[in-house]
Design a protein that fits this description.
By secondary structure, this protein is mainly alpha-helical. The protein contains 15 helices and four strands. It has a four-stranded mixed sheet with strand order 2-1-3-4, sandwiched between helices. Helix 3 links the parallel strand 1 and strand 2. It is elongated.
């Protein structure tokens, strides 16, 4: 008797069974749901509210060797600014001690001839500024804010006196894409890419490793299930779970943190799905190679989350890195997705930016999924 011919659609039935089996495994294991939905909420709340690249309420020591109305007016200008929390120091020695004790981060010192110099024809006066430079970024911001505050006060003073400030060049600044200079509008979209990297890698890093540890993968291989069906059956449930986490992250960004979204929602869905496939492919490849859940999770964090955080341009400027490290960032898929998210949220549908980065993500996704397909076949032969 001839062997029975496989029924049409049996491959789809097997794949559907694998998807159902993996979905039930997700329901029984709350950790996967926590990674997909609880982790984005925690990270977004921490970074959205706790991390800021803007400096506000900087503790400032204000020293006037000869207090008068001019020095009082300048102090009031700093005191009414949201960028400073000034404190009057009786002398420079006391202010220096405060700076050494980290009670203040900067000193504004007005010498005894401040008022006399200010009343001269050139409308200028010596002003000493001492800044704590341990944190270089904070020091630069503090110095720039003090300079801007001084120039603003000087301009207002001369205008109130019916005079004109002697400025040969008047700067008219216009800021595009983030006019309020809110660091949250920059950090939150970038954080979404980091979160999706971590979610996608961790969700699938444990999938095949769990099958290896339990010894069920060999049992699956002796069934009519094909390798492609097995991989799709493993990826689809976690893809749906990851897209749910992505939707939650975007909703929090727009409605909780007030980040504007100027691009197309369809492009966001398309690029997010492609990036999630990249992260899932990376996690699946790690899971196949490691064959141990603990080792796979460690490798996933080291090789996906840390590069996405450090080498993607999320916080650290890629252009400031050494040349060899800049070249290495081209292998980090989060680099491309962060550029896409920043463009969609803050600038809109800029095709010259969106499509090259989308193609780069597509190439990385194809590479890791193909590598996973090849590795699992070679390992089981």
């Amino acid at each position: 008797m001839s062997s029975p011919t496989p029924r049409r659609g049996s491959g789809w039935m097997r794949m559907g069974g694998l998807i159902r089996k993996e979905s039930l495994q997700i329901i029984r294991d709350p950790s996967s749901i926590a990674i997909a939905f609880l982790l984005p909420v925690v990270l977004l709340l921490i970074f959205g509210y706790g991390v800021s690249l803007n400096a506000k309420h900087i503790p400032l020591a204000f020293v006037a060797d000869a207090p008068d109305m001019e020095s009082a007016a300048l102090y009031a200008s700093f005191n009414h600014s949201t960028y400073f929390s000034p404190q009057i120091a009786p002398n420079l020695a006391t202010a220096t001690r405060w700076l050494l004790n980290r009670r203040v981060d900067a000193i504004v010192h007005l010498p005894s001839d401040f008022a006399a110099q200010l009343s001269t024809a050139n409308q200028s006066a010596p002003l000493q500024v001492i800044v704590n430079g341990i944190d270089a970024n904070q020091a630069r911001l503090t110095q720039a804010y003090i300079q801007a505050g001084w120039q603003s006060w000087l301009t207002n003073r001369t205008q109130a006196a019916g005079q004109s400030a002697h400025q040969p060049v008047e700067l008219a600044a216009r800021i595009w894409f983030n006019p309020e200079l809110r660091s949250r509008d920059y950090l939150v979209p970038g954080l979404i890419a980091v979160i999706m990297t971590l979610i996608g890698a961790l969700l699938t890093a444990l999938v095949m490793a769990r099958e290896w540890e339990r010894g069920t993968l060999e049992a699956l291989m002796v069934t009519p299930v094909q390798i492609n069906e097995l991989l799709i059956g493993k990826l689809v449930p976690y893809f749906v779970l990851g897209m749910g986490g992505m939707a939650l992250s975007v909703a929090m960004a727009v409605w909780l943190f007030g980040v504007p979204f100027l691009g197309s929602w369809w492009i966001l869905v398309l690029t997010s799905a492609l990036f999630l496939l990249t992260a899932l492919g990376m996690g699946l490849f790690i899971s196949i190679v490691a064959r141990n859940q603990f080792v796979a999770s460690l490798i996933a964090i080291i090789t996906t989350f840390l590069p996405a955080f450090m080498l993607s341009g999320f916080i650290f400027d890629i252009g400031s890195m050494p040349g060899w490290l800049q070249n290495l960032t081209y292998l980090v898929s989060a680099r491309y997705f962060i550029v896409i998210l920043h463009t969609l949220f803050l600038a809109g549908d800029v095709a010259a930016i969106l499509w090259p980065n989308t193609l780069a993500m597509l190439a990385i996704a194809v590479f890791f999924i193909a590598a996973s397909r090849r590795k699992i076949r070679k390992s089981l032969e």
